[in-house]
Amino acid sequence: MSSIAKNIKNIISKQARVPTLVDGDVEFGQSSAILEYLEEKYPEPSLLPKEKENRAWVRYISQIIIGDMHSVMNYSSVVTYLKEVCLLDSAQIKNWYHHWLKQGFDALEGLMSKGSDSKIFCWGEQPTIADLCLIPQIYNAFRFDFSMDNYPSLMRIYTHCSTLPCFEKAKPENQADYPST
Predict the structure, then answer these.
(1) CATH 3.40.50.1980 for domain 52-167
(2) Where in the chain is the domain with CATH 1.20.1050.10?
């Protein structure tokens, strides 16, 4: 195991959840806080449009994903609760997960197909915070056998982003701490 992988495995957020950012002596979690920190520390290329109305739009898209979808689905503590307290079986948990994916993706598809400045990304001509939030959710949808057939705008964005080296490098299976089994 590489020294990077060893260091990553020893880092756990105070909530025992991912993601956790470690940048020198700075260590904290929560997707939106991490993305805002990166935008402020490394402003070029920007992850937000220049105009404040467009910045708000990108944050709106991002918060649908972070607040309404990601937070109820991506934590083992949620699955553990559903299994151990709610006594749901695997099929019921999958249906629960699909419910939240559908609700979020329906809203996002409506925004992407009608109201946004979306072409190849969630907003504009370069990746934004919204794309950094969307791509992992679609990746997870595939992991949980959720059909993306009803989401052509989202799939157009996903397909384009998947061609970019930065998104390829960010895939879970390309991380040093990804389980080898």
Answers:
(1) no
(2) 52-167
What is the distance in angstroms between the CA of the first residue and the CA of the last residue of the chain? 14
Q: Please enumerate in sequence order all residues whose Cβ is within 8 A of that of 101, keeping only pairs 6 or more positions apart, or say none.
A: 69, 73, 137, 140, 141, 144, 146
Q: Indicate the residue type of 87.
A: L
- pTM of the full structure: 0.82
CB of 80 closer than 8 Å to CB of 155: no
The residues of the chain scoring below 50 in pLDDT are 1-10
Query: Residue 17: what pLDDT?
Result: 57
Q: Which own/partner pairs from 47-56 qualify as long-range (CB within 8 Å, at least 24 positions apart)? A: 47/127, 47/128, 47/129, 47/132, 48/128, 48/129, 49/123, 49/124, 49/128, 54/117, 54/123, 54/124
